[in-house]
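User: Design a sequence. Structure:
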């Protein structure tokens, strides 16, 4: 099968339009921001439209014109008050954080979220993110251990990815 590569700025607006029309889409994931659970060039995410979102869900959001991220919802606030319930207020402020980001976050409004990631193909296995108890445990654990995330990511890179920091490599 022949494949072509398109820039995200071209491809993702088309995908978002189809999702708004009621279709689902699957995309090959790129980038390391959702590491260790989702890996670039290995995993696939299935996206669909949703009318309400809650903390912990993985979403595709357009954080600035043509700049899309697939991140986990870290917090939803309305008028400065956090909410853990499902939220459908389009003006609610959403904080997004990639699983591979120990400190960085992105902000957007609920209306800037384009799709919900409801299923992933990870290491050849398909995970339903809404019903898998193991995935829910991963999500709960990862969002509740933010204070040690940088050490967990370093251990992951060293043991499983065999990526040594530059300062440890021989010159």
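Assistant: Done.
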């Amino acid at each position: 099968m022949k494949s072509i590569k398109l820039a995200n700025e071209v491809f993702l607006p088309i995908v978002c339009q189809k999702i708004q029309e009621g279709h689902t889409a699957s995309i090959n994931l790129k980038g390391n921001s959702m590491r260790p659970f989702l890996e670039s060039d290995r995993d696939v995410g299935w996206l669909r439209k949703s009318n309400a979102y809650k903390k912990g869900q993985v979403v595709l959001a357009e954080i600035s014109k043509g700049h899309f991220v697939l991140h986990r919802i870290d917090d939803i606030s309305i008028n400065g008050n956090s909410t853990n319930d499902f939220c459908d207020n389009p003006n609610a402020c959403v904080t997004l954080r990639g699983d591979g980001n120990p400190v960085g976050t992105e902000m957007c409004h609920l209306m800037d979220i384009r799709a919900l990631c409801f299923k992933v193909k990870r290491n050849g296995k398909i995970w339903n993110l809404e019903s898998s108890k193991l995935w829910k445990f991963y999500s709960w654990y990862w969002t509740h251990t933010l204070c040690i995330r940088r050490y967990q990511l370093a251990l992951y890179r060293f043991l499983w990815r065999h990526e040594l920091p530059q300062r440890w490599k021989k010159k």
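Helices lie at 8-20, 133-143, 149-159. The longest helix spans residues 8-20.
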